[in-house]
Design a protein that fits this description.
Number of strands: 5
Number of helices: 6
Structural class: alpha/beta
CATH architecture: Alpha-Beta Complex
Order of helices and strands: HEHEHHHEEEH
Mean pLDDT: 96
CATH topology: Maf protein
Strand content: 15-25%
Largest sheet: 5 strands, mixed
Shape: globular
Helix content: 40-55%
Number of domains: 1
Radius of gyration: 14 Å
CATH superfamily: CinA-like
Low-confidence stretches: none
């Protein structure tokens, strides 16, 4: 597994070279991905911005996650991650958008969604996909693993 700083640098070079842009919709990572992206000098050439949508009302209002999705699937779901990514893509008029929603812990778990459950979405102008992951470790480790996996997924499609 590559270090997050290496992934951020590699992604930045690719986005800049291709003239493509990135937007983020973060919940469980709380802006950690945006922080990693903006540590790279020149990131303003490809990073449009992001939303830290911790509360469901922000997911709905700013990212257009439907109330039906939140009610039927919950905020920690592939359905929500897809809608968050699609909302960020549209709102920021970006070429790529990543989303993260999950339970970093140590509280908030349910029997169906234990601590470490994270859904990551990736939207492009052609498609929107999301996957569910189960990470282990403390809160910081879950956040870092989530950010790393999101960046790995993005790197595959650039």
């Amino acid at each position: 597994m590559k270090k997050l700083s290496e992934l951020s640098s590699q992604i930045g070079k690719l986005l800049a070279a291709k003239g493509k842009t990135l937007a983020l919709a973060e919940s469980c990572t709380g802006g950690f991905i945006a922080h990693q992206v903006t540590l790279i000098a020149g990131s303003s050439a490809y990073f449009k911005g992001g939303v830290i949508a911790y509360d469901n009302s922000i997911k709905s209002f700013l990212l257009h996650v439907s109330e039906v999705t939140l009610k039927n699937h919950g905020a920690v779901s592939v359905e929500c991650a897809k809608e968050m990514a699609a909302g960020a893509l549209k709102n920021f008029n970006a070429d790529f958008a990543l989303s993260t929603t999950g339970i970093a812990g140590p509280t908030g778990e349910t029997p169906e969604k234990p601590v470490g459950t994270v859904c990551i979405g990736l939207a492009t102008k052609e498609s929107v996909v999301a996957e569910r992951f189960q990470f282990t470790g403390n809160r910081q480790e879950v956040i870092e693993q989530s950010a790393n996996k999101a960046m790995e997924l993005l790197l595959k499609v650039i």
